[in-house]
Design goal:
CATH topology of chain A: Porin
Shape of chain A: globular
Number of domains of chain A: 1
Strand order of the largest sheet of chain A: 1-2-3-4-5-6-7-8-9-10-11-12
Order of helices and strands of chain B: HHHHHHH
CATH superfamily of the largest domain in chain B: Cytochrome c-like domain
Number of helices of chain B: 7
Largest sheet of chain A: 12 strands, antiparallel, barrel
Strand content of chain A: over 45%
Number of strands of chain A: 12
Number of helices of chain A: 2
Oligomer: heterodimer
CATH class of chain A: Mainly Beta
CATH architecture of the largest domain in chain B: Orthogonal Bundle
Strand content of chain B: under 5%
Shape of chain B: globular
CATH superfamily of chain A: monomeric porin ompg
Radius of gyration of chain B: 18 Å
CATH architecture of chain A: Beta Barrel
Chain lengths: ~260, ~140
């Protein structure tokens, strides 16, 4: 859910996803944040994604909180034990953004206490870089992401974060029949993610961390459902996060669009 | 305003890429085939036997996986399309199972074939079993 492996979208394919996070909030209102994601395989080594973020804070309001443009670039031509992918993201979001797509710097639960009317007045332009490392061992995918982010508004320092995860399909062999409930369609895993402070105060002090089991269900009709309950590991973390997502892949979208453009020009 | 402009630029990028993909697919047929990648498999990888060769369900399971992941580019009958070559061609059918497995695992990233190591090893061998089974039918490849 939070940890990326090194696999990119297939070239020309478009994946559309709705993703949702419910979070408990001490000393404030619980909230439900959500995003729409459009992921496109530009080439076999480059995937681009557009996110549109929003949130509902209970007893407060619902609002659009901004957009993100993400790029993942595969660095090596062939598969290795560890496969690096460079992740570059530009965000233009308000202070009311609560999607918690990653945890960075000194992000803590108390950051989300402010009302939407106050928080939305803050505007952030942020650049985010990640080095995604991932590999496969005996059917398990093990991935580690290191994050560095810089808010371009104001004199904010570079902030850091991490995510690690492991996942495995419930069956490694595919069954001969087309089926929705075959074990190979289910992937289970666990991930941990959190902040590592910033350039002036690197480390675990005043940071939040989460541990989250994850289950994904790939349907033969190109739909995928993912769900992950997350648990805060210290007093700075939300006690509970429930993430879930629903996505649909459109293979050959680029070629279809290309043909359409060719016919109409 | 800046937000609207940024989204507009992004949409333009996607449209221009789609247009470029349309143009490149027109020229795909003129490009040299991808079969040379099979020869790049290291000898040790090429010599690996298919672990599921004697599995009676491997071909059927591979056919299912092919329809889900490969048919979009290689064609439903694996005859090839403008985007990817025929898998019935002699170069593919005469390749060792290990060489096919190696290309599946590593993809041909520079030429648009993604890596398929996200499929567990047994599923990649099932795909190899299916691709090899195509030699039992009349070759319709180049």
């Amino acid at each position: 859910m939070v940890t990326y492996d090194h696999y990119l979208e297939e070239p020309g394919s478009l994946e559309v996803e709705y993703f949702s996070t419910f979070a408990t909030q001490r000393a404030g209102n619980d909230f439900h944040s959500f995003w729409a994601e459009f992921e496109y395989g530009a080439t076999a080594w480059w995937t681009a994604e557009l996110y549109l973020d929003g949130q509902t804070t209970f007893n407060d309001s619902t609002l659009f909180t901004g957009f993100r443009w993400e790029n993942r670039i595969r660095l090596l031509q062939y598969e290795h034990v560890i496969n690096p992918v460079l992740y570059i993201e530009y965000e233009q979001i308000s202070g009311a953004d609560k999607i918690l797509k990653e945890v960075e710097g000194h992000d803590v639960e108390a950051d989300e206490v402010a009302s939407n009317a106050v928080a939305r007045e803050e505007h952030n332009h942020e650049l985010e870089f990640k080095l995604l490392l991932s590999g496969n061992v005996k059917g398990w995918n093990i991935a580690e992401n290191t994050l560095a982010a810089k808010n371009l508004t104001g004199g904010n320092p570079w902030e850091f974060g991490y995510a690690v995860g492991a996942s495995r399909p419930l069956a490694l062999k595919a069954s001969a029949q087309r089926c929705s409930f075959c074990r190979e369609n289910f992937i289970a895993g666990i991930e941990m993610y959190g902040g590592l402070g910033n350039r002036h105060s690197f480390g675990l002090r005043e940071t939040s961390h989460y541990l989250a089991p994850v289950v994904a269900w790939d349907l033969p009709s190109n739909w995928t459902i993912r769900i992950s309950p997350g648990f805060g590991l210290n007093d700075n973390s939300h006690r509970f996060l429930l993430r879930w997502g629903l996505s649909r892949e459109f293979p050959g979208f680029g070629a279809t669009l290309g043909r359409w453009l060719g016919e109409h020009s | 305003m800046r937000r609207i402009l940024s989204v507009f630029v992004l949409i333009l990028l996607v449209l221009s890429h789609a247009r470029a993909q349309s143009d490149s697919s027109k020229h795909a047929a003129k490009r040299k085939p991808f079969y040379t990648e099979l020869a790049k498999a290291p000898p040790r990888a090429a010599a690996r036997p298919n672990l599921l060769e004697s599995d009676p369900e491997a071909v059927a399971a591979g056919a299912k996986l092919f329809a889900m992941h490969c048919a979009e580019c290689h064609g439903e009958m694996a005859n090839g399309t403008r985007r990817a070559p025929s898998l019935r061609a002699g170069q593919v059918q005469s390749a060792t199972p290990g060489a096919l497995f190696w290309v599946l695992t590593n993809g041909v990233v520079r030429r648009g074939m993604p890596v398929w190591s996200k499929l567990p090893e047994p599923q990649r061998w099932q795909l190899v079993s299916y691709i090899k089974s195509l030699s039992n039918f009349a070759s319709q490849g180049p």
